[in-house]
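I had to read the description of the data format several times before I understood it. In essence, backbone conformation is discretised, so a fold becomes a row of integers matching the chain in length. I therefore recommend that a typical entry be quoted early in the introduction. For illustration, here is how one protein appears when written out as sequence plus structure tokens.

***
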Amino acid sequence: MARFITIVIDSFGVGAMDDVPRVRPQDSGANTCGHILARYPSLRLPTLEKLGLINALGYSPGVMQPAHSAAWGVAALAHEGGDTFMGHQEIMGTRPQAPLRMPFSQVIDEVEQALREAGFAPQRRGERLPLLWLNDAVAIGDNLEADAGQVFNITANLSVISFDKVVEIGRIVRRHVRVGRVIAFGGELASSQQLVDAVEEKDGRYVGVNAPRSGAYDKGFRVVHLGYGVDEQVQVPAKLHAVGVPTFLIGKVADIVANPQGKSWQNLVDSQQIFDITLQCVAENTPAFICVNIQETDLAGHAQDVARYADRLTLVDRNLAQLMALMTPDDCLVVMADHGNDPTIGHSHHTRENVPLLVYIPGLPGCELGQRNTLSDVGATVCDFFAASPPQHGASFLAALRQNAQGENHG
């Protein structure tokens, strides 16, 4: 009863990518894993050590050592920057496209016209830097929390407008812009004036709703992320559904990856709760692809809290040991990340880093999978594992694992 389990330790990078000095110089020298272990050299994560974390890191900053029996590699990001949303789309087999960066003011005319043609009556709020206001409940403008110009937000009062209607608005905006992401979301607010009162300008070029200050996250929060160039039909869940294999998504991955025919546990942050659900899914012994995101490490990175990050890694390590004890030789586990978020680098944003690729199959001998060019190699391997057609992007490493096992057995 084969299961393929992917645990994404959100932001747990193992060193800045080679292109960082050119494309993202603020991340030069970043190494999330290495700097955390250097800050806590006595920290031992025995399960991750066994899986080959130090092999992937390439050096030992503390007590942890390389594991000769590990199957491991390192994967580069094919998407620009370092982004959780696009990182997970890439894992699922999407070939990332290069989005544009721009303030919402640059496309407000086109978006406004598209909404009018769709039967809406958008109004402009603000003079020098206006945003769009719809149905006395929806604001459309720049995302003020992400890197400037990368994301547009549709922020809504779900006490006034249905979430389905908000998603409809979001899809219209998505069709007419080329930034990396459009996020359609909202919460049940006491008054839409809360959105108006939370409008802010940033850097003299960007205007939008300060989402945390608006209260949109506080009650009844719902969200959909719409990525540039993302087609769910070429991704792993759709490919597996075609051959009768379900996909289970747990944690933040469930909020950002389309999985209409599978099962998704959404709006989860607590790492132990996420692992409890994961362990239950594995214990049920149902053939499935199970993909899990552990978000609290990333939150610790944003907070530049090294101690909290180390604490969450300890929790991850302990639960990984329990998960591996439930596995059979027919199962496969991949532990990886989606980008970096070095809490010691001097800024609170994601860092563009290579990520570890740690593979465990009970009885599998150690091997090196080398430097992989994209996170999509995991998605391609998942499809190969279940004999499904490949996703849009990526090269499977399943044959390398099997050849190594056969060579070891023949030896």
